[in-house]
Amino acid sequence: MLGSTAAALTLLAGCVSGSGSGSGGESPAPSSLAADQKVSLTFSTYAFQDATVKATEDIVASWNAANPNIQVTVQKVDPNSVHDKLVTQFAGKQAPDIIHDEAADIAGFSRQGNLADLSSLIPADLKQQVPQSVWDSVTYGGKITAVPTIAQVYTVFANTDLLKAAGVAVPTADAPWTWDAMHANANKLTKGGTSGFAWGLKSPTAGIMSTSLGFDGTFVTGDEAKPKISITDKELAVPSLLRKMLQDKSMAADSTSLSGTDTLKGFYAGKYAMVMAGNYVATQIQEEAPDGFNWTMLPLLKGTNQHQASNPQTLSVARQSKYPAQAAQFIAYYMQAKNLAAIAQGDSLIPVTKPAADLVAKNVGDANGWPAMLAAADQLVDAPWNKADQFPDWKENYATPAYQKFLAGEIDEAGLTKELTDGWKS
Q1: Which CATH number do you get for residue 341?
Q2: pLDDT digit string (tens) for 117-153?
Q3: Cα 310 to Cα 252: distance, rounded to the nearest angstrom
Q4: Cα distances (Å, whole numbers) of residue 188 to 169, 181, 185, 287
Q5: Residue 120: which of 97, 149, 148, 143 has the closest Cα?
Q6: Distance of alpha carbon 360 from alpha carbon 224, whole angstroms
Q7: pLDDT one-digit tens code per residue, 259-313
Q8: 231 and 351: one domain?
Q9: Are residues 123 and 196 in the same domain?
Q10: Buried-most residue among 121, 307, 359, 424 (CB within 10 A)?
Q11: Is 2 part of a structural domain of the chain?
C-alpha cells in the first residue's frame, strides 16, 4: 500500500469486554437493546491513504449521524502492525468490536475463536453481491468470520507511448496477453536504455504464488489447517519464466533488489516500459507521474486462466464484543455501494460487490484500463495456502529466500522445489 500517511486519529482503548476468546468461534447471541440504550463500538482500521482515510471518516460520520444510539469510534492502526496489535488486544480482552484486516491474516484468529461467526448476521442481499469464491476466502470450518471489502491483483502497468512507438498494441479484456506474449513484447520493448519489463521482487513470494494460480498452481492440498505442499510444473511456471526473462534481459536486472513500488520512478523516466505491481499503485501513479506521462493497466496476464489469489481486505467482529449484531449492522452499512466505491477508489483497489464495482466504473470511465481491472473480480479464487497455519513462517523464512536464490541463478528448478518442500515440512 502506498500514499501519504494521514494525520493520526485519536487512539482509543477497546471499549469491549466479554466472554473472551474460546476455541469455538461461535457468534454471541445478538444483544437486545432498550429503546434508549446507548451503544459504543470501536472500529480499528489501517486505512492510511488520504482519500481512503477521508472515505472511512465520512462513512463513520454518516453512520453516527443516522444512528445516535449506536456510535462508532475509529481506532487508527499502523498497517505494518495490524497482526501484532490484534494478538495483544485479544489476549488482553481489549479487542475492538469491528476489525479491519485481510483474509490472509485472519486464519489463526478464526481457528482460535477470536472472531465471531457472521454467517447469520450478514444480510442476504450482501451475500449475493459477493462472488462465492471470495466468500470462500473468509470461511473457516463452514463459518464466515469476515466480510470481504476490496481486493488487490497483480497487473502490468504499461507506458502506452513506448508501446505505440514499438508497434505493440495494448491488449483488451477479450484478448488478454498470455505470459509468453508479455515476454515476447518485453523483448520488443527492450532497447537503448529501456528494459521491457520490471517487477519489484525483493519479497517475491506473494506475487509469484498469486499469479501461479493462473497456471492452476495451488501449492498446497489437503487439510485446511495442516495441508501438504505440492510443487509441480504448474507452481514453477511463473518463477521459471521470470528467470528466463532475467537471463535474456527483457526483464530489468535490478528487479530482484527492488520492492513492489521501487520500480515506479524508473517507469516514469522510461527506464522500464512495463512494470508488474499490485493495482493499488495506480493511486501513486496518479499522484506522482509527471505531466504528459501516458499509462494504462493491462488485463490480467493469462496462463491456463487469469486466476489470482482472493486475499481481500476484510471487516470482522471480535467474538468478545458485547454488540455483534450492531457491529454487523455497521459493516453492512460500510458495504453499501456508495461507501465501498469511495473506499475502493481511494485505494485503487477492486470492490468485491458488483453494485460498488458498477459505481466505480461509472466514476472512472475508461481511464487507465480501469474497466478490465474491475472485471478482474471474477478471476479471484480462494488461495488454499492462506488458511495454512504454517504459511506466514514458511513464506518469510523459507519461500522468499528460495525464490531469491532461484531468480539469482544460484539454484535450479529441482533445488527450488526441494527448498520449498523441505521448508514447508519443517
Answers
A1: 3.40.190.10
A2: 999 999 999 999 999 999 999 999 899 999 999 999 9
A3: 28
A4: 12, 11, 5, 29
A5: 143
A6: 35
A7: 889 999 999 999 999 999 999 999 899 999 999 999 999 999 999 999 999 999 9
A8: no
A9: no
A10: 307
A11: no
